[in-house]
## 1
Amino acid sequence: MLVAALGVLSGLLLPALPAQASSSPTPSASSSAAAGDSSAIRATATCAQTDTTACVAGTLRDADTNPVRGATVTLAAGGTPVATKTSAEGTFSFTVTAAGRYTLSLDESTLPEGLTPGNGTERTITARLGALSPAGFALEGAQQGGETDPEATPQGDTSAFGRFWNQVSLGLLLGLLLALGAIGLSLVYGTTGLSNFAHAEQVTLGGFLGYVFAVQLGVPFVLAGVIVIVLCALTGTVQDRLIWQPLRRRGLGLTQLMVVTIGLQLALQYVYQFIFGGGVRPVSRTIQANTGPLNITPNAYIAMAISVVVLIGVGLLLQRTRIGRATRAVADNRPLAAASGIDVDRIIRLVWTIAAGLAGLAGLLYALVYGGIAWNTGAELLLLLFPAVTLGGFGTAFGALVGSLVIGLVTQLSSLVLTAQLRYASALLILIVVLIFRPQGILGRRSRVG
Amino acid sequence: MPGYRSTGRRLAALAMGATAAVALAACSSGGGTSPSASTGASSSSSASASAVSVKAVPKCESGADETTQLKLGAFIPLTGGLAFLGPAAVGGVDLALNDINEAGGVLGKDACVNLVDSSETSQAALSVANIKKQLQSKVSAIVGPESSGVTYNVLPTVNGAKTVLFSPAATDDGLTGVSPYFFRNPAPNSFEASALGSQIVADGRTKVAFLTFNDPYGTNLRDGMESVIKDSGSAEVVYGAKGKNQEFPSTETNFGSDVSAALATKPDAIVIIAFDQTKQIIPALVSAGWKMGNSYFVDGNLNDYSADLPEGTLTGVKGATQGVNPSPELRAKLAAAYKANGGSSEPTAYGYGAEAYDASTLIALAAEKGKSAASEDIRKNLPAVSGTTGGEICKSFSACKQLLDDGKEIQYQGYAGTGPFNSKRDISSGYISIYQYEGNAPSKFLTSTKESD
């Protein structure tokens, strides 16, 4: 049967078979016993089912997932049972030539000390020709001094506090990365009153540029990061010159401007998809192990530190410097600021430049920490950025920080009690509740509302 | 790739990457974008090695009578996200017709081909316009399309014209029994779930976690595997089981939370059922200390990750994909047929080429059996030539035609090795192959299992 198909496979099978044979242990019981006349059972070192044979196979592991060697397993179908011992890898396998029901049993007395069968020692197996019928016994207890599988030992802190702390650290990380993305959104709103829906696409741009420079062109990561920030900042400058300044001069209302940003958002998404495809693009090929008190990767600590420094820096810039005071003046009353000699267009362009540069940095770090960037990553983030900014208070750097941390922590902590699918819904619910009691946001100034 | 690997292995790895990308693309009913066409672009140069002579297949004349001559429509993606699958399918159809015509044609006449672009799911208007054009030029039957989404888009039109549509690649479960004129021969998702679930149990896994993205493709596969795992008596699903609402949204971009929740259940195996999100899930798992060798992938993410991950990250990971991997000989023939009929370059992926060949041959045999190339007669005779009447097994058009001429019932078994149609016009049995990662490419073929419904 199906010789043609096997012919197709043989090219692959043939090189694979010798390798399997050489690495497999000698079968301890290879005697074939004929149960009836057609249901011949053979214990085999490995079994590759063909169209005329079926395979019954399994692997014995202890509770630590280490392989159990030398246990006796017996397969029978009415006639003489055939026994075999498990290999050094804990595997056993039988090749049978008739489909149907077989009884597999485990000899408990041959198990290493300390191991007991978790769910009986007998299984009924239905063999299908050409297919693998799996057979297994869950074993309880760990063997002493037995084989250890270097690939075993899956991890995970299962204590309640461990889980809680884990989610707190994930929440802090997400919150700080969001804050970095949110601050530009907040600044642009603060100075121009515009809700920029295309802001998250600036975040995506940072990730993609990171991919281009750090991965495709092989530029060292820190240098690539600097290039990315500069290029992203330039897109902010150019954007304001080509789009937002002319639109401001024409006196477009904020609603119309917002619709323009939505158009720009969609256009940019499809341009990214066109250039980079639908897949995820990494900005680094390295993977680090989680470490430290927060149990996150070293890169994640660095990203959090950068975020904190940048946010404080922007906050101080706004409060302490001339440029910052000018920015706040423009935010509060543009005609008055203009009348008092402030170059409003220059301030706004500066804000766009800073916002786009920080968004690029946020995208780069996001892609670094979360394993890559896709054309729609920004669009997904935007749904968290707006709530973060609204929650913290539009137009303030520290507000963006506080709002982002709340959103980050709530989304991650909620999955301790709610299903993971509701994690973002819970954050948005918090947003609504806070705004009912503090419409200006946590750190927003009351005067701006109403 | 490391230097120690033999050239053959390297080619196999490249080809595997291509096949996996194919499987991935063809199984997503969306089909608007191909998440990893880039891996599919890694060309297998083995195809050009041997010289195979394949003649061009005549193009159909629109005035010719489609009931006395086999006028085969080929409705294959030449543009859009699945365009990289096109060459192998075009090659499969043309190679089959070449073999058929060398054996004397169908009903004594050379069979001809009418090729149009099926495009992609998001281009529904273009797909429908193209297939209408094809139907107006009177074809006996159509092979295609590759995407489930495009199939849904054109089915009403094809049904209206009462013409057989035979897809070599659409795997969406919802297409089962959807129309009396719709046939297909790729192995369905349920076969893959059964094969991979069995592998997981046979590997001695007892606590399995599923990281599944919330999409019918993902949850169908998960459900199938979960039932195999539960039925084993030795293993259980500790995370991501059906009804636990632990699937992640397909737009999720950070997986730290999902990974820590899954690892907190102390699994000894993790099955990742996702498309390109896998690239973000892997680093999250590795960072948290998970040994990737205890993981399992599905056809949707059985890709070559060499460009994305540190060397050796995925060694030991096992994964399943539909069908058989076309042999080097078949690849060479598919490439030659594609070029002989105007193809400009080598196909970059070979997945579903064997299925396209078999689909074309089955249609020709159905016409021979019914002594008519009218679509209605082909439809009636397709199940019989696939083996539903328990006929004699034959493996080529010429051998099968000989048996038909002798008045015997036949069962055609072609390159894809699929069994007879069931009552819903899906294949009753087919092959699933299990591969293992060496480095970051699923290059080690482990086993093929035959699954049936």
Note: Residues 389 and 409 of chain B are 7 Å apart (CA to CA).
## 2
Amino acid sequence: MNALLFYCTLGIYLVATAIYLIYLVKPRDILGRAAHWLISIGFIVHCAFTVNRFMESGHTPITNLHESLSFFSLAVIGVFIIFERKYRVFILGSFVTPLALLLLAISTTFPTAIMPLNPALKSRWLAVHTSMAFLGYATFAVSFGASVMYLIQSHFLKSRKLGAMFQRLPSLDTLDEISYRCLTFGFPLLTFAIISGAIWAETAWGTYWSWDPKETWSLITWFVYAALLHGRLTTGWRGRKAAILSILGFFIMLFTFLGVNLLLPGLHSYK
Amino acid sequence: MNIIVVGLSHKTAAVEIREKVAFAPTQMEKPLHALVALPDITEAVIVSTCNRVEIYATTRDIAGGIARLKRFLSEYHNIPLETLEPHLYSYHGEAATRHVFRVASSLDSMVVGEPQILGQIKTSYGYAAEYKSSGIILNRFLHKAFSVAKRVRTETKIASSAVSVAFAAVELAKKIFGDLSDKTVMLIGAGEMCELAAKHFINTGVRGVMVTNRTFERAVKLAEEFDGKAVNYEDLFDHLHKADIILSSTGAPHFIIKPKDMEDVIRRRKMRPMFFIDIAVPRDIDPKVNDVENIYLYTVDDLNGVVATNLEQRSKEAEKAEAIVEQEIGQFFKWLSSLEVTPTIVALRGKFDEIRRAELAKTLASWKELPPDAEKKLEALTSAIMNKLLHQPTSVLKRTEEGNRNDLYIDALRNLFELETTRPAEEDLGELEE
């Protein structure tokens, strides 16, 4: 049942992503709508998979890389659907869904079996801490997508290459707005994830902060986004500069999530 | 008489070249007088807009005339002919007429159907009329062009569906700002194109308009018209940061906005994007301003890409318009050739009459005693012989006016009798036109 739901999700995401990519070059409205509905169905199936896994394992299914990547992917699609609806830009999907698909595909390369919960993770904080962190990551991912689009559109405008792709992409201000809005949600979520993590660490390991690689890199990520938001409010880091920083922040965040787990041994190295 | 056209346009030359060849509207007297002073060139009109520079002229010698006009453009603007030549096009005869009719009807415009070009040609013609460089042929020619343009405008939808450069600017602004309702437009300088663009922005719905001009009164007047705010030209940089969309079209010979100024301005507005549209020729805004973060600079040329997609939809209307142009070319040429036959006949008769009189005078002088009415009779006799002799060729010429052979006949006559056709006097042509 679990595997079936998972591969259904993967299949639907694959088709939806393909349609979003076709939509990028063949701008038919019907394609955009089809992709939107398909991805929404995929999201529901993905939710069902996550709930099913929660029921089967009896704990929040964000305890190893397979589960984390899957949840990350779910959160990205969830956040994306909200923003796609709000700003009515299907084409955002052409840049965000491939990312979610990729995350879900990578998750299959890790052991998928349900394992008994690591005793260290047996806490009420698990659900809060991890879901906050991944929801935050997801908004950063959507912000990343919008920022990439911003850079492309800004390049078209600067170099006056006003082709079909230019016509498809939304206005710079819309993209800037999406990217910024994402951060205004993502940043508090990340902050909350770090604080809840610290509190949890105090109860689990006896200290709020132990400079574990995950903690250190989370802090670095936090500082990058803090700088970006601060810069935006004070000196006006918007447009291209904000887009570049958001993209940079996303890569640092990816390292915090994957790189630390896979490369740097520490308290958070759950595989 | 042949009509020739030499010029360049947005289709053959980039704005960098066009601005070098442009003629200032305030100094039209000198080039127009210089043109008609050229050998072989009898009439001349200069049309100089930001998208094209063209000379319309009349000449006897097509190839020579065209070469002279090319050399004139090169010498007047101090550009080597080798540099300029690749951008120049030239037309004569029917092609020249077609070209000018198409230009006036806005079929050759960067944005087909845009309404400004007709006004611009009318203004150009106004200068030529004022400085008397245009004569009967170009007068008639341009009036015809105006009426063709009018027909095209009323009989096709090309103008009503016209997507002008101004419209293109609005579309592009939407790609930068999305919603324009909280944006401010600033006009630097004035000019038809600039005002038209501003009107489009206002119709789309912008928050406010600022206007600045070297002469403050003009700015105030325009600001009133747009329900906006006039700004002192000296204080431009104190206000520029408040503007999101800037339309610039001053007559300044140098850049008035440079990248260094803009670094400060954009910082003052917290890096919020700015959209500059440089309508002026020569340009007002240093092209390097486009490299400043979050600033997008477009010239009239660049706006072309935005509207390219709409062209297809309008090609049908354009076809209709082309048909009208073709029809009118025929009519105009009929007139132009009728103009050719009559002066030729007049010259021919003049030549014959001159010989007749000279010979008659010689004969009369050699006679000592004459019957009382001999002089009168001889006069009548010689005139009758001359008229009889000329009757046949004259009527043949007049008959062939409708056909295409009279150019050949006229050419032959002129060569055989070595006729010098002087520019016909205005009165003669007045009659001929009827």
Note: Residues 1-117 of chain A form one domain.
